Here is the input.
Amino acid sequence: MAYLDDLYSVKGKVALVTGAATGIGRMAATGLVHGGAKVLIASRKGEHCEAVAAELNALDAPGSAEGFAGDVSTEEGVAALVAAVKARTDKLHILVNNAGATWGADLESFPYKAWSKVLDVNVTGLFHLTRELLPLLDKAATDDDPARIINLGSVMGTQPMADGAYSYTASKAAVHHLTRTLANEFAERRITVNAFAPGPFQSRMTAFATASDEQAAHVGSHNPLGRIGRPDDIAGSTLYLCSRAGSYVTGAILPVDGGQSVQHGMRLFKD
Here is the structure.
């Protein structure tokens, strides 16, 4: 067990997880706290992040959490979040770009503003936050233990489908391509860059289709593995990519989707 504990440990590392008050971000933060990391949790609603951090600190886990407000939807918000991180640490071993937005509407009524709203968070904010935090990531990176970046993509960014979320699916495809681009550029800095491409999980973003157990079971029944994602699926994947186990992986788009991305005629919610 000592070998496995060491292989998947993130003990002593400092991580930032954006959008971590709910959903996949919280799942990733929980895994990192259990792995021994100090996790900074940021989202637009600081009080929610503080509450989540308190809950994580109450766990019997070797890591810790601190929650505060952070908004990546504007240039000013990114600058404020970077300042808040720098006030708390001088190096950053792990950055999980999880904050995201979506918009659903019929093609005929899909609004113009839905593009800027979604891409400003999912792509523009992700890029600029990463760029601004590079000095902290550089300081943590070594040949044997690179700094790690995980971007949140989506199975909808790998498949030609929208389910009415046209700007969302386009933004996630952009996240995947940007992930590969930055992985290539950052390798010499000893920073790995990977992305999750999750299938359906219970979260605020998918609450319209997965809020109840019955709804979640219905969506999961269309998945090749017969269920939607669970918190441990994200926690385990996060620990893999951020620990020694994943130190040689970069530029990967990890399909945490139960086989959804290789399913012919895939539909997530419209059925």
